[in-house]
Structure to design on (99 residues):
């Protein structure tokens, strides 16, 4: 016996089209209620998960920006040191051009 051909109290309801329609409507209603119930649970979970990922991405971006600023500052400091050293060596080079 299939799902839509059920005997109840010895009667065969296969001959009643309204019975089939009622069963189909009932199955669709239960499916919709299940989908709504699952959505009511999943949507808040998804919201929390997406905000967590967004926060992690912003934190990672901030760390990269900080690292870039540190590297730039170190490069500028090294350039300043080299410029200062070259300015210190400049009088020596002018005095002794063969060096």
């Amino acid at each position: 016996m299939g799902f839509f051909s059920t005997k109840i109290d010895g009667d065969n309801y296969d001959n009643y089209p309204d019975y089939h329609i009622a069963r189909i409507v009932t199955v669709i209603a239960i499916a919709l209620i299940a989908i709504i119930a699952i959505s009511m649970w999943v949507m808040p979970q998804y919201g929390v998960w997406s905000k967590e990922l967004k926060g992690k991405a912003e934190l990672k971006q901030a760390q990269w920006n900080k690292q870039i600023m540190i590297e730039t500052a170190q490069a500028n400091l090294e350039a300043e040191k080299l410029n200062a050293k070259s300015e210190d060596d400049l009088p020596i080079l002018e005095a002794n051009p063969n060096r």
The chain has one domain: 7-95. The longest strand covers residues 7-8. The chain has a mean pLDDT of 83. The CA atoms of residues 81 and 87 lie 10 Å apart.
